[in-house]
Design brief:
Blueprint lengths: L2 H16 L5 H9 L20 E4 L2 E3 L2 H11 L6 E5 L5 H9 L2 E6 L2 H13 L5 E5 L12 E6 L8 H4 L2 E13 L2 E9 L5 E9 L11
Parallel strand pairs: 3-4, 3-6, 4-5, 6-7
Antiparallel strand pairs: 1-2, 7-8, 8-9
Helix pairs in contact: 2-4
The protein binds S-adenosyl-L-homocysteine.
Length: 213
């Protein structure tokens, strides 16, 4: 790989560390997955800045710092079945593949899903399954999931997603509209109760579909 990208990526990892990301597995995933393969040509030179970048189709690849936060909240140990809603570029899918057992990812925009499939295929990531469709109702055929990560903001926590969590499972989802959003973590406790934590303010593209906007 191009030396300049390697250097930029090192700097990004140092910036994430300086920003408080200290989970070595997460930092290792950022080191293992080349973000520049997942962004359009026009913005490729900015691949390792901690900024969101346009993907086309009105969508964006999130800021690496936001991905790091979500991955931290997911609390992955390497064995989990993970559902990602909003494959987008496929970058977070690739990060997740390094940190979980198997990643299921669903995207509504066919063109983005096709591009993501191509990139993930190039990297030879075998523990990823992609689907085109509405992820707002989850992926019932593959449920339950230990972690569900939603990369788009919903009007409210979709009940269908909570129902697809395993005992102890975590749903990480931004909730809100253009005016304001909160990042929530909903945990299905082993006694069957739900624990909801507001972790951060957020700014994500809207979740479309049956349980979306
Ligand atoms: N985390 C990804 C993309 C985030 S953008 C990355 O960093 O590249 C959010 C994505 O969610 C967009 O690609 C959008 O098309 C997709 N999306 C929106 N509503 C969806 C739905 N109901 N089901 C699946 N994907 C959806």
């Amino acid at each position: 790989m191009n030396q300049a990208y390697r250097r930029d990526r090192r700097r990004l990892i140092e910036a994430l560390q300086a920003g408080g990301v200290n989970d070595l597995a997460i930092l290792h995933a950022f080191d293992a997955i080349p973000r520049h393969l997942f962004v359009p040509d026009a913005v490729r030179h900015r691949s390792y800045e901690d900024v969101a970048l346009p993907l086309g189709y009105g969508q964006t690849i999130s800021r690496p710092g936001a991905h790091a936060l979500h991955l931290g909240l997911a609390g992955l140990s390497g064995e989990e079945r993970v559902l990602e809603i909003g494959t987008g570029s496929g970058y977070q899918t690739a990060l997740l593949s390094q940190l979980a057992g198997h990643v299921y990812s669903v995207e509504t925009v066919t063109e983005l899903a096709d591009l993501a499939a191509e990139r993930l295929g190039q990297l030879g990531l075998a523990n990823v399954t992609l689907r085109v469709g509405d992820g707002s109702t989850g992926w019932p055929e593959e449920a339950p999931f230990d972690v569900i990560l939603c990369g788009a903001a919903a009007p409210r926590v979709p009940a269908a997603l909570v129902h697809q969590l395993s005992a102890g499972g975590r749903l990480i989802i931004p909730v809100g509209d253009d005016e304001g959003q909160e990042l929530l973590r909903v945990t299905l406790e082993h006694d069957g109760s739900l624990r909801e934590e507001t972790v951060d303010v957020a700014r994500f593209v809207p979740l479309k579909g049956e349980q979306g906007w």
